[in-house]
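Below is a filled-in request sheet from our internal design queue. Each sheet records the structural input a requester submitted and the sequence that came back. We keep these sheets so that new team members can see what a complete request looks like end to end.

REQUESTER: design group, bay 2
PRIORITY: normal
MODE: inverse folding
CHAIN LENGTH: 179
BACKBONE (tokenized):
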């Protein structure tokens, strides 16, 4: 069923491959979304042209670093092979609540970043995962700043105020030598 949703969506995974002959898809979770995948009952797959198709999830289970999902109407290998590489999206309203202090990407995107010593640094414009932890990309007057999203550096997140307070070490912000 093809549709263009009106509700807010969040990219939760990329279709990394197929598994078996029954049409299971291997989903690789995007940063901050791993907790959402096991509980989803539906997801959208986005085609290269931007068209999104909603699917009901028949089965979902973890498999190594992936989540295996079987989608209604796509229960054969031939039907799912063309979907490899597509982005999987979920309705933000369907995402499970995260434990205290954890946030989904759509909640962090656009937050103002304020350092406890330097003041405003810019806005969150990206997030990517490394083997060790997630990294926030902040764009502002100092240029691009990459901030490890770990408790040592992220002091407080106030979603209502749209702010992320950080305490960054010397040398992480361009122009720190001027401090």
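RETURNED SEQUENCE:
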């Amino acid at each position: 069923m093809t549709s263009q949703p009106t509700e807010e969506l969040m990219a939760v995974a990329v279709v990394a491959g197929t598994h078996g002959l029954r049409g299971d898809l291997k989903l690789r979770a995007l940063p901050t979304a791993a907790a959402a995948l096991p509980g989803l009952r539906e997801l959208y797959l986005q085609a290269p042209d931007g068209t999104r198709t909603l699917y009901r999830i028949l089965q979902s289970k973890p498999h190594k670093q992936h989540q295996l999902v079987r989608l209604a109407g796509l229960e054969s290998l031939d039907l799912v092979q063309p979907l490899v590489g597509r982005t999987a999206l979920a309705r933000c309203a369907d995402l499970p609540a995260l434990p205290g202090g954890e946030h989904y990407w759509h909640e962090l995107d656009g937050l103002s970043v304020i350092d406890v010593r330097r003041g405003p640094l810019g806005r969150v414009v990206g997030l990517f995962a490394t083997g060790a932890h997630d990294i926030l990309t902040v764009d502002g007057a100092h240029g691009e700043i990459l901030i490890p999203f770990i408790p040592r550096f992220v002091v407080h997140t106030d979603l209502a105020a749209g702010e992320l307070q950080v305490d960054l070490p010397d040398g992480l912000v361009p122009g720190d030598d001027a401090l």
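SHEET NOTES:
- The chain has a mean pLDDT of 88.
- Residues 9-93 form a domain with the Elongation Factor Tu (Ef-tu); domain 3 fold (CATH 2.40.30.60).
FILED BY: M.R.
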